């Protein structure tokens, strides 16, 4: 099944409104007529309005990096999915390993956030991935399956059809140590196999699974050449147009 490649730049806690606008201008110039690949960027909340404005009608999507699991209420410092949607985002990252590691997110909260995102008409980009000690203990697939089980609990195929998954091994994030194309492909295939036991074939076949973790212009083409790697979730290399564009290019060539 042909899945359209998808490259997402996760800017994390970088690029305030001014800097974000500068990068958005460069992205618009470089990518406005790109047909063969979907591209989105995930700026920090406060930079979302500038980026949404700048990228309007370019086809480049804007995602938030997180949202709360409730639509509104007394949750000081939080941002809800309907607010993210109202700000012009169409997607939201959910369950990024940095959220799990530093902000106590669990499979249960990830499940709630996916539901909140879908209710607000946002496409969730759901992140899973194992820590180094888990991989070294030979339990990577089991742990990722457990994360999927929790994240997707109670959700049907209509929900899955609106999601993208991202496999981001924690040991490869921001470390310069990327998973080999074989390691990444093995996990992506395992994820698809696991999903096949629970969701209809068509929904699983159409689902895009992105790889994230030290993706760079140097390793993108080989990763993206794998049959079950449908795109990339890029951190550090998405902060500069010179390093992000070649990754988008690699995804375009793949298609
Ligand atoms: P790096 O590309 O900087 O390793 O970050 C990956 C990531 O966490 C994207 O969400």
| Coarse structural class | alpha/beta
Residue-averaged pLDDT, rounded?
96
Estimate percent helicity: 40-55%
Instruction: Determine the oligomeric state from the structure.
Output: single chain
The sequence of SSEs as H and E is EHEHEHEHHEHHHEHHEHEH
Secondary-structure arrangement, i.e. CATH architecture: Alpha-Beta Barrel
The kinds of small molecule bound in this structure are: 1,3-dihydroxyacetonephosphate
CATH class: Alpha Beta
Rg of Cα set: 17 Å
Outline the biggest β-sheet.
Answer: 8 strands, parallel, barrel
CATH H-level superfamily title: Aldolase class I
Tell me about this structure.
The chain has helices at about 15-30, 50-55, 80-85, 95-105, 105-120, 130-135, 140-150, 155-160, 180-195, 200-205, 220-225, 240-255, and strands at about 5-10, 40, 60-65, 90-95, 125-130, 165, 210, 230-235. It has about 260 residues and is α/β, with parallel strands linked by helices. It has a single domain (about 5-250), classed as Aldolase class I (TIM Barrel), CATH 3.20.20.70. An 8-stranded parallel beta barrel has the order 1-2-3-4-5-6-7-8, surrounded by 5 helices. Helix 1 runs parallel beside helix 2 and helix 5 (about 105-120) crosses helix 7 (about 140-150). The mean pLDDT is about 95. Bound molecules: 1,3-dihydroxyacetonephosphate. The site of 1,3-dihydroxyacetonephosphate has 14 residues, from strand 8.
């Amino acid at each position: 099944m042909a899945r359209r490649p998808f490259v997402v730049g996760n800017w994390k806690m970088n690029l305030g409104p001014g800097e974000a606008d500068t990068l958005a201008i460069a992205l618009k110039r470089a990518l406005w007529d790109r047909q063969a690949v979907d591209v989105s960027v995930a700026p920090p909340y406060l930079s979302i309005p500038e980026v949404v404005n700048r990228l309007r009608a370019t086809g480049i999507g804007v995602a938030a990096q997180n949202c709360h699991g409730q639509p509104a209420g007394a949750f000081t410092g939080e941002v809800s999915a309907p607010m993210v949607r109202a700000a012009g985002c169409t997607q939201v990252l959910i369950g990024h390993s940095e959220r799990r590691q530093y902000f106590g997110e669990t499979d249960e909260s990830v499940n709630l956030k996916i539901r909140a995102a879908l209710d607000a008409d946002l496409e969730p980009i759901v992140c899973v991935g194992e820590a180094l000690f888990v991989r070294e203990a030979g339990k990577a697939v089991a742990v990722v399956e457990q994360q999927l089980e929790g994240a997707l609990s109670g959700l049907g195929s209509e929900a899955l059809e609106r999601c993208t998954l991202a496999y981001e091994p924690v040991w490869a994030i921001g470390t310069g140590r990327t998973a080999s194309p074989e390691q990444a492909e093995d996990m992506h295939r395992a994820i698809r196999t696991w999903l096949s036991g629970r969701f209809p074939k068509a929904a699983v076949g159409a689902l895009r699974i992105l790889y994230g973790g030290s993706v760079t212009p140097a390793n993108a083409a080989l990763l993206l050449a794998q049959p079950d790697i449908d795109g990339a979730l890029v951190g550090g290399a998405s902060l500069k147009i010179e390093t992000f564009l070649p990754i988008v290019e690699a995804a375009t060539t793949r298609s």
